[in-house]
Amino acid sequence: MAKTSVKKVVLAYSGGLDTSVILKWLQETYHCEIVTFTADIGQGEELEPARRKAELMGVKEIFIDDLREEFVRDFVFPMFRSNAIYEGEYLLGTSIARPLIAKRLVEIVRMTGADAISHGATGKGNDQVRFELGAYALMPDIRVIAPWREWDLTSRETLLAYARQHSIPIEYQTGTKSPYSMDANLLHISYEGGVLEDPWTPAEDAMWRWSVSPEAAPDKATMLDIEFEQGDPVALDGKRLSPATLLETLNKIGGANGVGRLDLVENRYVGMKSRGCYETPGGTILLRAHRAIESITLDREVAHLKDDLMARYASLVYNGYWWSPERLMLQKMIDESQQRVNGVVRVKLYKGNVIVVGRKSEHDSLFDSVLATFEDDAGSYNQADAAGFIRLNALRMRVGAKRDSRG
User: Fold this and answer.
1) Are 194 and 288 within one domain?
2) Domain tally for the chain?
3) What is the pLDDT of residues 280-297, one digit of tens each?
């Protein structure tokens, strides 16, 4: 398809250097009308400057959407019902935001009659895969323009030169820009690049923005009660909160106690290893608390099956398959398992640690203190029954041992 055949493009637009250059590049290269879309998913930045920059560049249709509640309610919380962790550590803060942005891009395409979408993800990263897999799943014939895979602007210096040449309204100040590539939303903030490109070099203390160091956290622990309904947190210390407000509150409480810092090397879907640092205070607390309430409300085999499938679910989210039939199928199974996951978990936050100190469920607990007690159980459990149970389960190993001894 010729470049001139594109009439209108919906651009995922932050107002920063990259997407501002992309906006002008699309106008110059494709001679098309641009629609900008800026999502508020809790990154904590003022978004109105993005509107003003887009207007200065001649954009007539500008979408700045507050998606914070939808993000937490329909994406973060369903993922946390699965206890998803990628490669044993990563809580998927960047990954889970991308399917929502892809969904909204497609919705705006339909609203405006556009015939393509564009994004600022590079050809080296995971985000290009996540955005595009999501878009294709929701609109199979959508055209995607990924400038980083087409142009010859390969560095910040060349982007700045292009911006000067075309009078693009951006900030040129030096010395104040973070040396890291950062991504933030209500679930986390991530850091890549700079000194982090050497996996042996420790992260600088000044890099972290959401949390104090565990050493600098208060000497007194913070106690917190988290209430769950059908696997989702709904209240803190008895106060019901909206999904976005609850997660934002947990981020502040957790960050103040040094909770949620992570430094890891992960395997990107596109093939290379990447070192990144993450702050996920609220998510770290929620994961520990959710597992605690499941520990007394989930059947043993259901819980173990969920754990068996968790790594697969996490990989689907990380690799961009949120809208795939297999993730949707897994989600239905996970959601079914959460129907009786109701109750309250008490956690103690202390110098970077999240310690579960209590869990209760008034109507859905499977914990039976009479069965579990080391004291007199009044005949509710016949300990002699265990002998037959053990002999039956040992049968195959006994037969194998006898065979091996003959050999």
Assistant:
1) yes
2) 2
3) 999 999 999 999 999 999
Half-sphere exposure of 107 (CA within 13 A, CB side): 10
Burial (CB < 10 A; 0-12, 13-18, 19+), residue 206, is exposed
- Answer whether residue 335 is part of any domain: no
In this prediction the pTM is 0.93
Same domain (yes/no): 254, 122: no
> Does residue 200 carry a pLDDT above 90?
yes
H or E segment and range at residue 109: helix 98-112
Does 3 have pLDDT greater than 70?
Answer: no
DSSP alpha helix (H) spans, 257-350: 281-297, 300-319, 325-337
Q: Where in the sequence numbering do the catalytic residues fall?
A: 18, 98, 127, 181
The DSSP letter of residue 202 is P
Angle at 61 between CA 56 and CA 65, to 5 degrees: 105
Q: What is the CA radius of gyration of the chain?
A: 25
CA dihedral 46, 51, 57, 61 (to 10 degrees): 150
b/e code 329-353 from CB counts within 10 Å (16+ = b): ebbeebeebbebbbbbbbbebbbbb
- What pLDDT is attached to residue 175? 46
The pLDDT tens digits of the residues spanning 93-123 come to: 999 999 999 999 999 999 999 999 999 999 8
Sign of the torsion formed by the C-alpha atoms of 111, 116, 121 and 126: positive
